[in-house]
Design goal:
The protein is α/β, with parallel strands linked by helices and 450 residues long. It contains 15 helices and 20 strands. Strand 9, helix 4 and strand 10 form a beta-alpha-beta unit. The longest helix has 23 residues. Bound molecules: zinc ion. Zinc ion binds next to loops.
C-alpha cells in the first residue's frame, strides 16, 4: 500500500516534518520505504493507494496504562455519601464495578474503549484488567475484541488477595494461561502481548507476591499500581517495614520489563531503586487529579534515570488530552512555568512510550516514521495558522491538535478508520449492546453496594 499526499511528521531520533511530496510504501505491516511520491507512484503503479488529502501523517499514539474494565463507570452513581478519599473511591466504586462485570460486560467494556481508541488515534494500549466474577478466560474475551478492532495491545489480569486466596490463584492462572497463548506466536495474535498483572502492594500478601514471582516466566514483566495513594505506602510500611518499591523489589517484581503505574508517593530511595532496576513507571495525570492522590515527581524521576511513560488509567483514549494535562499539572502544582516543558511531554508520551512498546513487542520499531518501523499511523486534519516546524511541533500539538482531527487510523499497515469511518468495528451496534450490558452491570453494582 502507498500513502500519498500526506505531510509526514516522523518523530524518531530527529523529528522531521516532510511537507513536500513525500510518500510511504507499506508492506507486511511495516514502513518499507519513504521516498518522493512521484518515484513511488512510478515504481509501484499497481499498489493500492491511501490518499491523505494533504493531512498530516504521523505515528499513532500509545497508552501505557489503561483499564478497559472501567468503561461502564461513565455516569454511574454511587449510593450514599460520596467517597471522601482514595481508599473509599476504590472501595465504593472500582471494587464493586469489577465484581459486577459478567462476560458480556467484559467484552463490551473493552469494545467501547477500542472504538474510542481508533476514533482518536491511539494505536497501542497496555491494559490492566479485573473482573473477579469472570476471571478464567477474561483475557481471551478482551484479546478477541482487540483482534477484531485490529489494534495493538498488551493484556494482563490484576492478581489480588482482596477477594480471598482462591481468586488470587485464579488470577495467577489467568495470567499464565494467557501468557502461554501469546507464547504460541499465533499469527492471528501478532498484535497482542502479555504482562503478568498484579493489583497493588496494598492488596497483595507476601505469599501471593512470592508465588507470582516464582511462576512468572522469564522475559515477561509485571504490571502493577505502585504508591498511587498514601495508603499504599502506609500499608507496605506496616506489613513489611519497607516502602512500596522496596517491598516489591524484595519479591523480584522490578524486572526491566515491568510497569509500575503512578508512583505518586515515591521517595528518593525508591526512585533510585527503580532507576537501577530499569522498570517502567507510567504517569496518569487526569486520574491523579480525579482521585486527588497527589502529583507524581515525574521530573525528578526522569532526571534520576527512571524510564517514565504516559497512560490514561481508563480515562478517554484521547491521548493528546493526557499530554495536555501532564503539561499543565506540573506547572500549576509548582506555580512554575518552567516545569514539564513541551519537549519533556514528548519524551514521555512519544519516545519513552515507543521504547516501552518496543520492549514488549520484541524490539519492534514503533512510534516513528522510518524505514522498517511498524506502520501504525494516523492522519490528522490540522490546518496551522502559524508556522509549524519540527522544533515547535510539541506546542502545536499541546495547544492546537484535537482528537476530533484524527480521520484515519492504521495499525500494522491495516486501516481501521479512513475518512472518519470505522472499518473494523460497528460503533452503533457496539454502543447498543454495551447499553444492554451496562444496564445489567449497573443493576448488579447497585445490589453489591446495597
Ligand atoms: Zn490504573
Amino acid at each position: 500500500m502507498l500513502i500519498i499526499n500526506g505531510k509526514l511528521i516522523t518523530w524518531g531520533k530527529e523529528n522531521k516534518i516532510l511537507e513536500d511530496g513525500w510518500g510511504l510504501l507499506i508492506r507486511d505491516g511495516v514502513i518499507k520505504k519513504i521516498a518522493p511520491q512521484k518515484e513511488l507512484l512510478t515504481d509501484y503503479p499497481e499498489e493500492e493507494q491511501l490518499d491523505a488529502e494533504g493531512q498530516y501523517v504521523m505515528p499513532g499514539n500509545i497508552c501505557a496504562h489503561t483499564h478497559f474494565y472501567g468503561a461502564f463507570s461513565r455516569g454511574l452513581g454511587i449510593s450514599g455519601e460520596p467517597p471522601a478519599n482514595f481508599m473509599q473511591i476504590l472501595d465504593k466504586l472500582w471494587w464493586h464495578l469489577d465484581k459486577a462485570l459478567d462476560a458480556e460486560g467484559v467484552r463490551y467494556s473493552a469494545l467501547v474503549c477500542l472504538v474510542d481508541a481508533i476514533k482518536h488515534g491511539t494505536t497501542t494500549l497496555i491494559d490492566h484488567h479485573a473482573s473477579p466474577n469472570v476471571i478464567d478466560g477474561s483475557l481471551d474475551i478482551i484479546a478477541d475484541a482487540v483482534n477484531e478492532a485490529g489494534l495493538r495491545a498488551s493484556l494482563c489480569y490484576e492478581v489480588t488477595d482482596r477477594d480471598g486466596s482462591d481468586k488470587a490463584e485464579q488470577g495467577i492462572q489467568e495470567n499464565l494461561r494467557f501468557i502461554r497463548r501469546i507464547q504460541k506466536r499465533d499469527p492471528n495474535d501478532a498484535n497482542l502481548r502479555a504482562h503478568f498483572g498484579l493489583h497493588a502492594s496494598l492488596t497483595l500478601s507476601d505469599e501471593t507476591l512470592e508465588r507470582s514471582r516464582e511462576r512468572c516466566p522469564d522475559g515477561i514483566g509485571f504490571h502493577i499500581h505502585a504508591a498511587e495513594g498514601l495508603a499504599d505506602q502506609e500499608d507496605s510500611l506496616e506489613r513489611s517495614g519497607l516502602r512500596v518499591v522496596h517491598r516489591l523489589d524484595q519479591f523480584g517484581i522490578l524486572k526491566p520489563q515491568s510497569i509500575l503505574a503512578h508512583g505518586v508517593h515515591f521517595d528518593d530511595s525508591e526512585i533510585e531503586t527503580l532507576a537501577q532496576r530499569g522498570s517502567w513507571l507510567t504517569h496518569q495525570p487526569r486520574s491523579n487529579m480525579n482521585n486527588t492522590v497527589g502529583i507524581a515527581p515525574i521530573e525528578k524521576m526522569l532526571e534520576k534515570g527512571v524510564r517514565v511513560g504516559l497512560g490514561n488509567d481508563g480515562f478517554s483514549n484521547t491521548m493528546w488530552l493526557e499530554w495536555k494535562e501532564a503539561y499543565l499539572l506540573h506547572k500549576i502544582a509548582h506555580r512554575d512555568p518552567q516545569r514539564m516543558g513541551g519537549n519533556m511531554v514528548i519524551q514521555i508520551a512519544v519516545k519513552n512510550n515507543s521504547a516501552l512498546i518496543s520492549d514488549v513487542f520484541d524490539g519492534l520499531r514503533i512510534g516513528e516514521i522510518s524505514e522498517g518501523a511498524a506502520a501504525d499511523l494516523i492522519f490528522v486534519d490540522y490546518h496551522p495558522f502559524t508556522p509549524l516546524t519540527s522544533g515547535n511541533l510539541p506546542w502545536h500539538i499541546l495547544f492546537g491538535f484535537q482528537e476530533s482531527m484524527v480521520t484515519a487510523t492504521i495499525v500494522s499497515g491495516k486501516p481501521l478508520m479512513f475518512q472518519g469511518e470505522l472499518l473494523t468495528l460497528d460503533e452503533e451496534a457496539i454502543a447498543k449492546k454495551a447499553m444492554e450490558a451496562s444496564r445489567r452491570v449497573w443493576k448488579r453494582f447497585g445490589d453489591i453496594s446495597a
